[in-house]
Amino acid sequence: MNQQTNQTTVLPAYIFDLDGVIVDTAYYHYLAWNRLAKELGFSITEQQNERLKGVSRMKALDIVLEMGNITASAEEKEKMASKKNNWYVEYLETLDKNHLLPGAYEFIAAAKKLGIKIALGSASKNAKTILKKLELLSVFDGIVDGTMTTKAKPDPEVFLLGANLLQVSASECVVFEDAQAGIEAARAAGMTAVGVGSENNLTGAALVVPSLAHLSPEELSQQLSQLQEQ
Ligand code: BG6
Ligand code: MG
């Protein structure tokens, strides 16, 4: 069922993380978490922020509280998480296509043209709102977001659900991720992981590109075939 190009095989399914891969929202998450941290009397560095990427809202909050050495009751945590989310949603108000990350739209369009099935695999409960603002909601053959999962990345649940929606096996999927937790989730699912960002922050990916503007589906297939031959 794989499609053949000149010398390589194109894997039939792609699963995209949203924040930091398709759209530049990772910075807004950081702003909102740092605003909460500042209220609590400390701040979060950009390097520390790497740990917050990819994980669910409540897991991210636990990490933030651990950074500040703060303990809170379940009720207080609910309040903090909703405060952070309100700020984050406020930041999203002005979000539009201009916030698409370089090459993301073009890469997705090229994949669709080749008949590759595409799904979203995001931890965010705001994913559908964001896709609507980007006018990308109808582009995906399947959407898995934070309202549909019970286990945060690095658990493979989100990606396995994505493969299920696309009716493909895990080994037929390539996952695009900007977070270490996401790379680990993809690998735990038995999928090929492509890191989007800096190699310093993303270990274990088959390939890391600075952005999707540096890749086409054909180039990806070639690079993956070369890796297989090694
Ligand atoms: C992920 C982000 O996509 O979504 C995380 O990388 C974030 O930083 C998570 O915590 C949950 O997002 P939301 O929108 O449900 O708070
Ligand atoms: Mg991400």
In this entry the ligands are: 6-O-phosphono-beta-D-glucopyranose, magnesium ion
The tally of helices reads: 9
CATH-defined topology of the largest domain: Rossmann fold
The biggest sheet, with number of strands, parallel, antiparallel or mixed sense and barrel status, is: 6 strands, parallel
Mean pLDDT value: 94
Strand order of the largest sheet: 5-4-3-6-7-8
Question: Could you say which structural class the secondary elements and strand pairing correspond to?
Answer: alpha/beta
CATH level-four homologous superfamily name of the largest domain: HAD superfamily/HAD-like
Secondary-structure element order, N to C: EEEHHHHHEHEHEHEEH
End-to-end distance, in Å? 24 Å
Query: What's the structural domain tally?
Result: 2
Radius of gyration of CA atoms, rounded to a whole number: 18 Å
Low-confidence stretches: 1-7
- Tell me the number of strands: 8
Kindly describe this structure.
By secondary structure, this protein is of the alpha/beta class. The protein has 2 domains: 3-24 and 99-229, HAD superfamily/HAD-like (Rossmann fold); 26-92, Putative phosphatase, domain 2 (DNA polymerase, domain 1), CATH 1.10.150.240. Helix content is 42%, strand content 13%. Helix 1 packs across helix 4 (74-92) and helix 3 crosses helix 4 (74-92). The radius of gyration is 18 Å and the shape is globular. The model is unreliable at 1-7 (pLDDT under 50). The site of 6-O-phosphono-beta-D-glucopyranose has 18 residues, from helix 3. 6-O-phosphono-beta-D-glucopyranose binds next to helix 3.
